[in-house]
Amino acid sequence: MPHTALRTESLIKLAGPIFFQQMTHTVVLLVDLYFFSHLSDEIAGTIGQLLPIIWLGTFVIPVFAGTGVSVASQYMGAKQHHKVVPAYMMNLVFTAGMGLVFGGGLWWFSGDIGRWMGLPDTLNKIGATYLSAMSMYFLPMGVLVAYNAVLSSRGMTHWLMYSAFMVAGINLALASLFVLGFHWGVRGVVTASVISVTTATLVSVWLVHRTLGVRFYLRGAKRDMLGVLRPMVRLGIPNALEPFSYSLQQVFLSKMIIGLGVVAMAANNYAGRVQMFQITFSLALALGGQILLAHWMGARRFADVNHLYWKTIRWGMVVAGCYAGGLWIFSDWILGIFTADPAVKQLGKTLLLIAAFYEPARSVNIVGGFSLKTVGDARFPVVVGMIFIWGILPVVWAVNHYWSLTLVGFWLFFAADEIIRAGINLWRWRTGKWKSMGIVGHHPEPPLPPPEALQVEY
Question: pTM for the complete prediction?
Answer without folding.
Answer: 0.74
